[in-house]
Amino acid sequence: MARPPFPPTPNTSPAAGGVRPGASAPGAKKDNDRRTLVVGRGISVQGTIQDAERLVVEGTVESSMINASELQIAHGGIFKGEVEVEDAELAGTIDGKLTVRGSLTIRSTGRLLGTAKCRRLKVEDGGQVSGQLEMISTPAPVEPPAAAPQPKPATP
């Protein structure tokens, strides 16, 4: 006799009088709702990672190119390769090419090796940067000159 691989989930419908613990109102998007890939401690992953909005590295990841919204490398985690994200937080090590369109935070245990581009940078005391770091700066958008108001034609 086989049993189901996971225990049945409790009835969490509003009609049953409840909402899952930690759940938010419908329509609100939290970190838990994002497509997240967690590479746990002691696990190594090589290859292409697609469609992950948030990547959390506690083990080792080697990849030629990853696009995601958020990258988090935990203490002891290692990322080797190329990655382009909106925001990144490094408490572990990244060795390769990193492009961060938003904020890059390097924690006290974080190490950045290789090349990196970012718009905003925060390095805690003890954080290490070895290699090339470039700040992304985009000029302020230029607005076209305002057209002079046209006189209204006179009506007889």
Q: What radius of gyration results from the CA coordinates?
A: 23 Å
* Amino-to-carboxy terminus distance: 95 Å
Proportion of residues in helical segments: under 10%
User: What characteristic shape results from the CA principal axes?
Assistant: elongated
Helices and strands: which structural class?
mainly beta
Average of per-residue pLDDT values: 79
Order of H and E elements: EEEEEEEEEE
Strand content: 35-45%
Low-confidence stretches: 6-29
Q: Count the helices. How many?
A: 0
| Strand segment tally | 10
Assembly context of the chains: single chain
Major beta-sheet overview: 10 strands, parallel
Family: Belongs to the bactofilin family.
Pfam families: Bactofilin (PF04519)
Biased composition (Pro residues): 1-11, 141-156
Protein name: Polymer-forming cytoskeletal protein
Write the layout of secondary structure elements.
Blueprint: E1 36-39, E2 44-46, E3 54-57, E4 60-67, E5 70-73, E6 78-85, E7 87-90, E8 93-106, E9 111-123, E10 128-135
Parallel strand pairs: 1-3, 2-4, 3-5, 4-6, 5-7, 6-8, 7-8, 8-9, 9-10
Description of the molecule:
This protein has no helices and ten strands. It is mainly β and 156 residues long. It has a domain at 34-131. Strands 1, 2, 3, 4, 5, 6, 7, 8, 9 and 10 form a ten-stranded parallel β-sheet that branches. Mean pLDDT is 79; it is low at 6-29.
